[in-house]
Amino acid sequence: MVVIFDAELWIWDARRSDTWTFVSLPGEASEEIRDLAGGSRRGFGSLRVRVTVGGSTWKTSIFPDSAHGTYVLPIKRAVRTAEAIDAGDIATVNVELIDF
Predict the structure, then answer these.
(1) Which residues contact 24 (CB under 8 A, 6 or more apart)?
(2) Other beta carbons within 10 Å of 55
(3) In CATH, what number is assigned to the domain containing residue 26?
């Protein structure tokens, strides 16, 4: 499954000093992912994904956000630097589920 969407980068309030930066997957896509993945989840309910933002591609995990009913995706600093994006910016994100 591949999901392509535009999303605003945001900083996780609980770790603001560490500047953990995320995007939230759309609600409808998150529902489809939950249905597709079924019970195959790793720690914290995470799912392995391959992500592309601009010219950067990497493997990471998405995590369920129970407060909003969506999955969230961390955008690592190296990608933010390479793509010249930061919290508050909008990025086009391509997420492909792998290993589920």
Answers:
(1) 7, 10, 65, 68, 70, 71, 72, 73
(2) 8
(3) 2.40.30.100
Nearest alpha-carbon partner for 27 in 44, 5, 12: 5
Distance from chain centroid for Cα 95:
8
Helix (H) or strand (E) holding 53: strand 47-53
Q: Which residues contact 8 (CB under 8 A, 6 or more apart)?
A: 23, 88, 89, 90
Domain total in the chain: 1
What is the residue type of 70?
Answer: T
| 43-59: pLDDT as tens digits | 678 999 999 999 999 99
pTM: 0.87
> What angle is formed at CA 93 by the lines to CA 54 and CA 33, rounded to 5 degrees?
150
